């Protein structure tokens, strides 16, 4: 492995750096974007139970806000529930915008890595080819085995760039899709909260869903 890195030249360093950053982002986002963490089950039912039993206090709102992204959205709506439906919905939308921004954190960087890694590899190949042909022109000698060996070394960076870019692109699309699914789920729960708090809908506490 070390021989391949050496053969690829200095351009392998940014490619390796991209691979490390991409792996860190993927691991962190897979852990952070777990559905059980972002949208805990039965949370809405529990909140409605607190409301009915008149146990919803500022301390519970604070804990709800810190518990999960969905809890942050529900807490924003509950804190302004007495100001009417429209104000409540606006506060939920503002909180949701902040939550979505947090959920999408680092995904742009991952997409950028997926885009630049193959370009770095191609750059390394082009520089390698220039170096090879320059050496042959300077010495005035060239033979097929030497040329083939030089080209093979030059292509190492392209292969390395693709090895980094393919999984980065896959997980970028996968994580964006997961964020979309989580956002849809949170929107549905927020709508249910507005409806039940404003008296338009009942909640099945056994299921924890409206």
Automatic annotation (TrEMBL):
Q: Which GO terms describe its biological process?
A: protein import
Query: Where is the protein localized?
Result: Cell membrane; Membrane
Q: How does it sit in the membrane?
A: Multi-pass membrane protein
The cross-references to InterPro entries, in alphabetical order and at most eight, read: ExbB/TolQ_transport, MotA_ExbB_proton_chnl
Question: What GO terms fall under cellular component here?
Answer: plasma membrane
Annotated ranges, domain MotA/TolQ/ExbB proton channel: 66-187
Keyword terms, alphabetized: Cell membrane, Membrane, Protein transport, Transmembrane, Transmembrane helix, Transport
Give the primary localization class: membrane
Superkingdom, taxonomy of origin: Bacteria
What is this protein called in UniProt?
Answer: Biopolymer transporter ExbB
Species source reads Stutzerimonas degradans
Lineage per the UniProt record:
Bacteria, Pseudomonadati, Pseudomonadota, Gammaproteobacteria, Pseudomonadales
């Amino acid at each position: 492995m070390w021989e391949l890195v050496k053969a690829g030249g200095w351009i392998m360093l940014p490619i390796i750096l991209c691979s490390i950053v991409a792996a860190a982002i993927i691991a962190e986002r897979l852990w952070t974007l777990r559905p059980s963490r972002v949208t805990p089950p039965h949370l809405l039912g529990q909140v409605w139970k607190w409301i009915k039993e008149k146990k919803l206090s500022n301390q519970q709102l604070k804990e709800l806000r810190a518990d999960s992204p969905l809890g942050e959205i529900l807490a924003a709506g509950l804190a302004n529930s007495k100001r009417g439906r429209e104000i409540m919905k606006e506060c939920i939308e503002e909180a949701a915008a902040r939550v979505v921004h947090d959920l999408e954190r680092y995904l742009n960087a991952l997409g950028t890595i997926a885009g630049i890694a193959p370009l770095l590899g191609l750059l390394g190949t082009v520089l390698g080819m220039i170096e090879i042909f320059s050496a042959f022109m300077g010495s005035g000698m060239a033979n097929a085995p030497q040329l083939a060996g030089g080209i093979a070394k030059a292509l190492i960076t392209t292969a390395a760039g693709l090895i980094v870019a393919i999984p980065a692109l896959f997980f970028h699309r996968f994580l964006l899709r997961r964020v979309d699914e989580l956002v849809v789920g949170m929107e549905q729960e927020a709508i249910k909260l507005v409806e039940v708090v404003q008296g338009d809908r009942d909640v099945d506490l056994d299921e924890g869903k409206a």
